[in-house]
TrEMBL record:
<dbReference type="InterPro" id="IPR015867">
    <property type="entry name" value="N-reg_PII/ATP_PRibTrfase_C"/>
</dbReference>
<dbReference type="InterPro" id="IPR002187">
    <property type="entry name" value="N-reg_PII"/>
</dbReference>
<comment type="similarity">
    <text>Belongs to the P(II) protein family.</text>
</comment>
<dbReference type="GO" id="GO:0030234">
    <property type="term" value="F:enzyme regulator activity"/>
</dbReference>
<dbReference type="GO" id="GO:0005829">
    <property type="term" value="C:cytosol"/>
</dbReference>
<protein>
    <recommendedName>
        <fullName>Nitrogen regulatory protein P-II</fullName>
    </recommendedName>
</protein>
<dbReference type="InterPro" id="IPR017918">
    <property type="entry name" value="N-reg_PII_CS"/>
</dbReference>
<dbReference type="GO" id="GO:0005524">
    <property type="term" value="F:ATP binding"/>
</dbReference>
<dbReference type="InterPro" id="IPR011322">
    <property type="entry name" value="N-reg_PII-like_a/b"/>
</dbReference>
<dbReference type="GO" id="GO:0006808">
    <property type="term" value="P:regulation of nitrogen utilization"/>
</dbReference>
<dbReference type="Pfam" id="PF00543">
    <property type="entry name" value="P-II"/>
</dbReference>
Amino acid sequence: MQLTRTSTSVASRTSRAANVVPLRVSATRCQQCRLARRASVVVRASDENGRVPTQRATYAELESIQCDLSAFPGVKFFRIEAIFRPWRLPFVVDTLSKYGIRGLTNTPVKGVGVQGGSRERYAGTEFGPSNLVDKEKLDIVVSRAQVDTVVRLVAASAFTGEIGDGKIFVHPVAEVIRIRTAETGLDAEKMEGGMEDMMRKKK
């Protein structure tokens, strides 16, 4: 009986040993599997989603945006309302500050973000037609002459080229009043050390 058991255990060990793959061979196979897996992955931008890629602006186009204000010929001030991705906020504010735009208001907002039926991605999650997505909103009131410049700065600094970059709206503003001094018009809108002062120094 003991002899039978011993021979059975030896036989089972021998069969297991026969099935053991040498370490080098298994490592080579693993590398081949990884390479095969890598070769099969197709990386697409989030807005493509297997479809034809959507058109993306170039920075040259963003930096040459012109707003049509002809519907409001007598309006001196405009409110620029920009809605964009939350993680772009520091870039947008920093860019505006460098160019002398210091008067702005920031509000966290949520919105439905779908364009042409494509789903938007944010923080690793896809959002469809009825999902509210976190965004940041900036409100900036500027004089008529500064509208194009500010819109260009916001557009270029908020841009990623993917669905969900946001939108900019330009609204006419009837009047500006500074509460502390009761100044109105251009005197109230002007910020000390702002864009206007920076342009004068350059000249």
